Predict the structure.
Amino acid sequence: MQKLGDLNSIVNVLSSLEPQYIIILPHVRTDPDALGCSAGLANLLMQLSHKVEIIVDEEPDQKLKYIYEDSPLNVFSKEFLKKMEKPDLIIYLDHHSEKRLNQRIEIPHLYPQTQIMIIDHHLIEAEEKEKFYNQKEFKNRKIDVWIDKNRSSVSEMIGEIFLSMNLHGEKQIIFDRATSISLLAGIYGDTGGLRYSNTTSRSYFVCSKLMRDDISIDKISDPIFANKNLNQIRMISKIFENAELNSQGNLIWYGVTQEFLDENNGNQDDLEGVCSQLREIENIDLAILFREIDANDIRINLRSNENFDCAELARFFGGGGHIRASGMTIKNQGTLKEVMQLVIHKASELMANKQSH
């Protein structure tokens, strides 16, 4: 399902709200778009006199702190939950499922009557659409949804929302420097610096409205795509040197063990962006990076070009994402080597099926 709800319905709801307490829940393991859209929306809602808090599952990557440093962001804990007042509105950003909340799932469960808003750009399955319409997942709630996989990022969608509110509303919302940086970083993160195929004329239009003379775009893009230390570069070079190729030369993969990270003084954050770099190798249709979180927990990144649908492979293993960038976590299904064999076999099968049609 490519689309559910629309821009106007969200604008109408947000425009009619009296000042209230709103919490924003981005997806677990926040990336630039999740942080950018959350910080941008929080800053803009506060201009409308709402009390807003962003609640994340774990401390975000410190190199991305510039995206949210002026925003009311808190890391979830049992102590925080005890002190938290009842929210009037819960907003899911950059995801549409309680599965992407991890421990924060306690929040919507603690307040089953609280209104929910969902703004996302990930593909939604038909069965999940049924959950929304039939209230199977969110019983006794009012739910407002805008899911559109044709948007490059949720940061782009947040920009659209407030541009529309400014066009039709009485109060003009200011895109201050902090808000513009947050949303630009989110758009840049999910479009690869406006290079990926999900970049549209709409993406450029929203960026043009966000860009200011006092913003240096390299200060936004470098923490996402550059600024790697020498140790990280050396570790990545070993991944490239030892990555495996299929016989056709269009599928590349590598499995990162905890032992490998320890030997190279690396961590999981150092692996961000590596899968995309593998995909950029000539003739590669699909790149897969396997990451051993622990003995029973394998995280998998998928990146592809127009010749392969990452999301189809991810959904087969219970994951999800976009056509060109997806991921999944496989737990308790074997060792890293066994999981790699399982996923590579399925990926090869899907690639062969596509080539035969």
Observations:
- The longest helix spans residues 336-356.
- The longest strand covers residues 286-294.
- The CA atoms of residues 201 and 207 lie 10 Å apart.
- The radius of gyration is 20 Å.
